Amino acid sequence: MRSVLLKWGLVLTLIMAPVSLHAEGPVQTWVCYYGKVFGPRIYGQFDLAVLDSRHHPSLGRNGPGSRPILLGYVSVGEVHEESPGWSQAQHQPYLVRKNPQWNSWIVDVRSSEWRRVLFETAFPQVMAEGFDGFFLDTIDSSLHLMETEERASFQGTREALCGIVETLRSRYPGKLIAVNRGLPVLPAIASMIDFVVVEDLYSYYDGVGRGYVRVDEKTRDILLSQIRAGLQANPHLTVLTLDYAGEGERTLAMEAISFSRKNGFVPYVSTYKLDQIFYYTLHP
Question: 162-176, pLDDT tens digit by residue?
Answer without folding.
Answer: 999 999 999 999 999
